[in-house]
Amino acid sequence: MLTPISGRSTIVTGASKGIGKGIAAVFAKAGAKVMVVGRNEADGLATVEALRAAGGTAEWFAADVTDWDAVQAMVARTTEVFGGVDILCANAGAFPQTKIVDMDPAEWDGVMATNLKSTFLCVKACIPAFEKAGKGRVVVTSSITGPVTGYPGWAHYGASKAGQLGFLKTAAMELARYNTTINAVMPGNIITEGLVDLGEDYMKAMAASIPLKRLGAVEDIGNAALFFASDEAGYVTGQQIVVDGGQILPESLDAIAEI
Ligand code: NAP
What we know:
Layout: E1 9-13, H1 18-29, E2 33-38, H2 41-53, E3 57-62, H3 68-82, E4 87-90, H4 105-133, E5 136-141, H5 155-175, E6 180-187, H6 193-196, H7 200-208, H8 218-229, E7 240-243, H9 253-257
Parallel strand pairs: 1-2, 1-4, 2-3, 4-5, 5-6, 6-7
Helix pairs in contact: 1-8, 3-4, 4-5
NADP nicotinamide-adenine-dinucleotide phosphate binds next to helix 1, helix 2, helix 4 and helix 6.
């Protein structure tokens, strides 16, 4: 049993839907005060309403996490309403699927900005709050795609997700002076709005390639993030955990057919 995180001010980026919404639900249930961040106001307000209906504390802040001014405003607003920032879940991300031969350089830049630059901006913006509190926690949503696996169409996405892990190793050293840890969750295929957009065939093929024979739920990622945010994980930093139902384990198609 983890020590409750009751009352901890938590920013979850990309919480208007998908994995971020799941992280927000798990953290709100554990007693955290959650700042739901995204761009789509209707989706964000719906998330806040759902969290409150379940007894949680939540507020909405609209921000594009690629925009430094917006990210600073996100931290300022969170400090204003919740009294500081204890936990940052840098989760917002995008995964357009385009093969290298067809990829416009602007698409590469956009994915890097949304997934990788945003991680740097959000961490940087929270440092003064962590310094003031004398402690902090950062949980980054990376992926198995990039750090461990490859998939046609996701060269830019995979590079951005591997980049997040490269970033966090040095960030862990620099944040240590603020008694702040930073770790990453690496999801496999998790059922979200973004994944559903990839189509039924993609989802079926993926489920068949996973030893546990099912796609993950957003709460599976929320629970792993909750561990990294807990008091009990206070001596863990610069690390990552794969949450993928065993997807990266089979060495061949025969191996998955055996089980
Ligand atoms: P999703 O359903 O498409 O949701 C993406 C979230 O990110 C939305 O809340 C979206 O908010 C937000 N977002 C995107 N760009 C943003 C920006 N520039 N500024 C602010 N918010 C932005 O995607 P998901 O599947 O939940 O993915 C969430 C994270 O998990 C990503 O980092 C992704 O790489 C990672 N991941 C997902 C899977 C999976 O299987 N689903 C697997 C591995 C890793 P708005 O629409 O309101 O802007």
